[in-house]
UniProtKB/TrEMBL annotation:
<feature type="compositionally biased region" description="Acidic residues">
    <location>
        <begin position="491"/>
        <end position="500"/>
    </location>
</feature>
<dbReference type="GO" id="GO:0006890">
    <property type="term" value="P:retrograde vesicle-mediated transport, Golgi to endoplasmic reticulum"/>
</dbReference>
<dbReference type="InterPro" id="IPR023298">
    <property type="entry name" value="ATPase_P-typ_TM_dom_sf"/>
</dbReference>
<feature type="region of interest" description="Disordered">
    <location>
        <begin position="486"/>
        <end position="507"/>
    </location>
</feature>
<feature type="transmembrane region" description="Helical">
    <location>
        <begin position="28"/>
        <end position="50"/>
    </location>
</feature>
<keyword id="KW-0067">ATP-binding</keyword>
<feature type="binding site">
    <location>
        <position position="796"/>
    </location>
    <ligand>
        <name>Mg(2+)</name>
    </ligand>
</feature>
<feature type="binding site">
    <location>
        <position position="555"/>
    </location>
    <ligand>
        <name>ATP</name>
    </ligand>
</feature>
<protein>
    <recommendedName>
        <fullName>Phospholipid-transporting ATPase</fullName>
        <ecNumber>7.6.2.1</ecNumber>
    </recommendedName>
</protein>
<dbReference type="InterPro" id="IPR032631">
    <property type="entry name" value="P-type_ATPase_N"/>
</dbReference>
<dbReference type="GO" id="GO:0140326">
    <property type="term" value="F:ATPase-coupled intramembrane lipid transporter activity"/>
</dbReference>
<feature type="transmembrane region" description="Helical">
    <location>
        <begin position="124"/>
        <end position="143"/>
    </location>
</feature>
<keyword id="KW-1278">Translocase</keyword>
<feature type="binding site">
    <location>
        <position position="513"/>
    </location>
    <ligand>
        <name>ATP</name>
    </ligand>
</feature>
<keyword id="KW-0333">Golgi apparatus</keyword>
<feature type="domain" description="P-type ATPase A">
    <location>
        <begin position="168"/>
        <end position="300"/>
    </location>
</feature>
<feature type="binding site">
    <location>
        <position position="770"/>
    </location>
    <ligand>
        <name>ATP</name>
    </ligand>
</feature>
Length: 1058
């Protein structure tokens, strides 16, 4: 469609995706080809919806310590990850098994053997294999379910202290209710969403770790409600309530009010995100008391997790389609047999007997072989020494690793180590790198040793360095934390001698800030203490400089900068410091000619840049600002806008001090791994909760976006019109990477879902920043629906779990952010670089082997059904089995099972080759190893061989019918063993053992099969030459064809391995 069309047909676009769905005709064909499953599924969903109708989420008033005053009934605070309960386990597992056509078909055939007139052979030949398949599945599911139950039980039975009128009582995590006052100690998990009322820390604030909620490893500062923190007595001495908004998905926002009723006038305090303690976070400092506002299903962490679905591999779905085709062929064949008979007598019964006779066309051993194969691949992956520590948690989808087209990856902790290193300080005329930091140190020592410098017209380099380092040491949100090693408790050091460097750690909500403060310490200016109102620095000579914090303007994603106003206590000077992204700061600082150019240079090196500036304020200027600022903060309408306007009045003509560059170190071998995946035809999307600038920076440094490629940054859009214009602008770009924020993505998907996905899929790389956990999962689902390609998600934090569970194949990395992602994933690895070998080698082998195995097992069934058809047509279309009882069971098991199963050891190229030529992986995504074309070739082979074996035996048998069975069965076993040898591409010693072992078993069992074979005839020459002749005719042409094909039209991999 042209651009004009895109602009004009705006109304049509909205209805496009829906319209396409509605065009499908729903006739009888639709019903037979899976419509029944859709209808049954929608009926079940409807019933389930009625049974557990979702309660509407409402805002609430929570009285402190009085759960009984709650007007509503709130959910139980229990964690539940189980799929089934005691009643639904058996029906649930059986439904999961019998929704596959293959298994359902066998159930019907096995049940038909209870009807005397339809009975063919022995019951055990039908029920034993089916029972075995079901037993294996049940045991596997039961073990998984028990493990989940134990994990949940452990979490739910953690004990917490609850405050009551009579004092403290111990309570289980699952028994906590809305309104309870809960005490949480240091390093304890917060059990439910709470409002932070008091803390043991003197400054009325505490740190929490949120890695399991948002994937960020840095600590967040939380502030207790002022009214309750200042209380001299206990919390039951007051009457108060919290008004909280209804439960929401957004973990970064909260609105509520705290009201104390027993005073005159009533005390009101507004509550925001900094007063909340969300469930699944961990207290990092002090002991806290909170009142529970949301429990169980209504907590932010549970609202943001999606439930695991049962994943089914693409290969299983393809085989399921082929079995349907085989079933159709079987029914047609049976109808032909009855029709040739002339529909005489009870033809309907005969038809069913033929269907049962030919039931071997669809072998039940297909499921057994494939499931055992999957377990073997899992074992091989876990035993691979090149990727140590890899765990396969879902054994049903190893073939998916060989079919991936989209890889969606997290950034922090997956591509990067989340460890910052200070690399560069630029002052405009001079730049300092890691090798010249000692110069800065000597300048700092020198400037603090001198008496205060007299104001000169032009500043010396030394004084400019001093100003810059001081600004970096003051402008931040970092708090030093001291661990006293006496009793293991965290104590805030009061006296000067406690400020020793050994037991000090820095905490902040951004690892960049911590690294900047660590760097100022390394050059001699150390942050030693900080509370809500003041901050102390230590100079190289050991002198303490005290500063009073007057105002702090925190960093937001809109403003992209943070500021602080401090008063130096010794001189009384008031200074406004500010640091932020270059885009935000360029218009604030005084005119200069170097900032833009240097920021570009640093970004190209993959550094995260911050611009630092300052402004000196007089006492009058500050007082005027403070009055306007406080007035703006009290306004009810447009508070945010008014506050921003007042702050902006200060942000003018600021003095530019320096530019800093910090590097977020990449994981080992990230660049070559991403290069490998790109060459393999896999499109990589990076989904991160981080800022746009940081995400773009990492995309460049990790070579996710190659150097020559343009990057299109999608402008923030908030409505349909803006989204429309921006999509048009993006449409005009060619071959460029896309960077988009979560909010803009939401708007685009609301109005132009189909168009956006279509455009994004053409990009070589896509970066989505500021993504919530649910958004990550939504993007995965979108790709699955719109492209019908296989997706893989990889991450390492609790915030990646939804995405990992939604993808066709989820990979978790055991990292610093805990094990939550690796436990929820299908495959767990220890390093990002292992994904290359996991996909190129193990994914390739699993898919190729399963395709060969599946088709071979089908061939084994089709060949015997062809022989049965020839046999019945020769003997007046009688519905009598050719091979009875044990011969049939033995054929599918002991005589051919080991050689056929040994195909799981086959490989077409060596692992080194697969890694050296990742382009080979592209072929797999086309699904050519298992398609209707390859399947038809196998059908033709089966018909040819079955016909030769049966007619050969009939032509060569002398007078007795018993010889037909002996000759044809022996030739059949030999043909199967030779066909396995023909299919194998790389021999393994176990394959040779399996071939000879199976042959040995057959020869040994001839002695016991006298009810089927005439032993005196088997040992004669005629028997041997007849069997050899038939086998030669059935196999030799195929060997010749294979040789010619290899010579004149070799596959791509054989060119490499030759």
């Amino acid at each position: 469609m042209s651009e004009e069309g895109f602009e004009n047909d705006e109304s049509d676009y909205q209805t496009l995706p829906r319209a396409r769905v509605n065009h499908r005709q729903r006739g009888l064909g639709w019903f037979l080809l899976g419509g029944w499953k859709v209808l049954c599924g929608s009926c079940c969903d409807c019933l389930a919806h009625i049974c557990r109708r979702k309660k509407e989420l409402k805002a609430r008033t929570v009285w402190l310590g009085c759960p009984e005053k709650c007007e509503e009934k709130y959910p139980k605070n229990a964690i539940k990850n189980q799929k089934y309960n005691i009643f639904t386990f058996v029906p649930g597992v059986l439904y999961q098994q019998f929704k596959f056509f293959l298994n359902l078909y066998f159930l019907v055939v096995a049940c038909s053997q209870f009807v005397p007139s339809l009975k063919i052979g022995y019951l055990y030949t039908y029920w034993a294999p089916l029972g075995f398949v079901l037993a294996v599945t049940m045991v596997r599911e039961a073990v998984d379910e028990v493990r989940r139950y134990q994990r949940d039980k452990e979490m739910n039975s953690q004990l917490y202290s609850k405050l009551t009128v009579r004092g403290k009582v111990q309570v289980k995590s699952s028994d906590i209710q809305v309104g309870d006052l809960i005490i949480v100690d240091k390093n304890q998990r917060i059990p439910a969403d709470m409002i932070f009322l008091r803390t043991s820390e003197k400054n009325g604030a505490c740190f929490i770790r949120t890695d399991q909620l948002d994937g960020e490893t840095d600590w967040k500062l939380k502030v207790a409600v002022g009214c309750t923190q200042r209380l001299p007595a206990d919390l039951f001495s007051i009457t108060a309530y919290v008004y909280a908004q209804k439960p929401q998905l957004d973990i970064h926002s909260f609105e509520g009010n705290f009201t104390r009723e027993d005073t005159d006038p009533q005390i009101h305090e507004s509550l925001s995100i900094e007063n909340t303690l969300w469930a699944s976070t961990v207290v990092a400092s002090g002991t806290v008391i909170g009142v529970v506002i949301y429990t169980g299903k209504e907590t932010r962490s549970v609202l943001n997790t999606s439930y695991a679905k049962n994943k089914v591999g693409l290969l299983d779905l393809e085989l399921n389609r082929l079995t349907k085709a085989l079933f159709l062929a079987q029914v047609v064949l049976s109808i032909v047999m009855v029709a040739v008979q002339g529909f005489v007598g009870p033809w309907f019964r005969n038809l069913f007997r033929f269907v049962v006779l030919f039931s071997y066309i669809i072998p039940i051993s297909l499921r057994v072989n494939l499931d055992m194969g999957k377990s073997a691949y899992g074992w091989m992956i876990m035993k691979d020494e090149n990727i140590p520590g890899t765990v396969v948690r879902t054994s049903t989808i190893p073939e998916e690793l060989g079919r991936l087209v989209y890889l969606l990856t997290d950034k922090t902790g997956t591509l990067t180590q989340n460890e910052m290193v200070f690399k560069r300080l630029h002052l405009g005329t001079v730049s300092y790198g890691t090798d010249t930091m000692d110069e800065i140190q000597s300048h700092i020592i020198q400037s603090y040793a001198q008496s205060p410098p007299s104001p000169k017209v032009r500043k010396s380099v030394s004084s400019r360095i001093h100003e810059a380092v001081k600004a970096i040491a003051l402008c931040h949100n970092v708090t030093p934390v001291y661990e006293s090693h006496v009793n293991g408790e965290t104590e805030s050091a009061e006296a000067d001698q406690d400020y020793s460097d050994d037991n000090r750690t820095y905490q902040a909500s951004s690892p960049d800030e911590v690294e900047l403060v660590r760097w100022t310490q390394s050059v001699g200016l150390t942050l030693v203490n900080r509370d809500l109102n003041s901050l102390q620095l230590k100079t190289p000579s050991g002198q303490i400089l005290s500063f009073h914090i007057l105002q702090i303007f925190p960093f937001t994603s809109e403003s992209k900068r943070m500021g602080i106003i401090v008063r130096e206590e010794s001189t009384g000077d008031i200074t406004f410091y500010m640091k932020g992204a270059d885009v935000a700061m360029a218009s604030i600082v005084q005119y200069n000619d170097w900032l833009e150019e240097e920021c570009g240079n640093m970004a190209r090196e993959g550094l995260r840049t911050l611009v630092v500036a300052k402004k000196c304020l007089s006492e009058e200027q500050y007082q005027d600002f403070e009055n306007r600022y406080n007035q703006a903060k009290l306004s009810i309408h447009d508070r945010g806008l008014k506050v921003a306007a007042v702050v902006e009045s200060l942000e003018r003509e600021m003095e530019l001090l320096c530019l800093t560059g910090v590097e977020d170190q990449l994981q080992a071998d990230v660049r070559p791994t991403l290069e490998l995946l790109r060459n393999a035809g896999i499109k990589i999307w990076m989904l991160t909760g981080d800022k746009l600038e940081t995400a773009t920076c990492i995309a460049k440094s990790s070579h996710l976006v190659s150097r020559s490629q343009d990057i299109h940054v999608f402008r923030p859009v908030s409505n349909r019109g803006e989204a429309h214009l921006e999509l048009n602008a993006f449409r005009r770009k060619h071959d460029c990477a896309l960077v988009i924020s979560g909010d803009s993505l939401e708007v685009c998907l609301r109005y132009y879902e189909h168009e956006f996905v279509e455009l994004a899929c053409q990009c070589p790389a896509v970066v989505c920043c500021r993504c919530s956990p649910t958004q990550k999962a939504q993007i995965v689902t979108l790709l699955q629906q719109h492209t019908a390609n296989r997706t893989c998600a990889i991450g390492d934090g609790g915030n990646d779990v939804s995405m990992i569970q939604a993808a066709d194949c989820g990979i978790g990395i055991e990292g610093k952010e805990g094990k939550q992602a690796s436990l929820a994933a299908d495959f767990s690895i220890t390093q990002f670089k292992h994904i290359g070998r996991l996909l190129m080698v193990h994914g390739r082998n699993s898919y190729k082997r399963s395709a060969a195995l599946g088709q071979f097992v089908m061939h084994r069934g089709m060949i015997i059904s062809t022989m049965q058809a020839v046999f019945s047509s020769v003997f007046y279309f009688a519905s009598v089995p050719l091979y009875q009882g044990f011969l049939m069971v033995g054929y599918a098991t002991i005589y051919t099972m080991f050689p056929v199963f040994s195909l799981v050891l086959d490989q077409d190229v060596k692992p080194e080759m697969a890694l050296l030529y990742p382009e080979l992986y592209k072929d797999l995504t086309k699904g050519r190893s298992l398609s209707f074309k390859t399947f038809l070739i196998w059908v033709l082979i089966s018909v040819y061989q079955g016909g030769i074996l049966m007619y050969g035996a009939l032509v060569l048998f002398e007078s007795e019918f018993v010889h037909v069975v002996a000759i044809s069965f022996t030739a059949l076993i030999l043909t199967e063993l030779l066909m396995v040898a023909l299919t194998i591409r790389t021999w393994h010693w176990l394959m040779v053992v399996a071939e000879f072992f199976s042959l040995g078993c057959y020869l040994a069992s001839l002695a016991f099969l006298n009810e089927y074979f005439d032993l005196s005839f088997i040992t004669t020459w005629p028997f041997l030459w007849k069997v050899s002749a038939i086998t030669l005719v059935s196999c030799l042409p195929l060997y010749i064809i294979k040789y010619l094909k290899r010579k004149f039209s070799p596959p791509s991999y054989s060119k490499l391995s030759s």
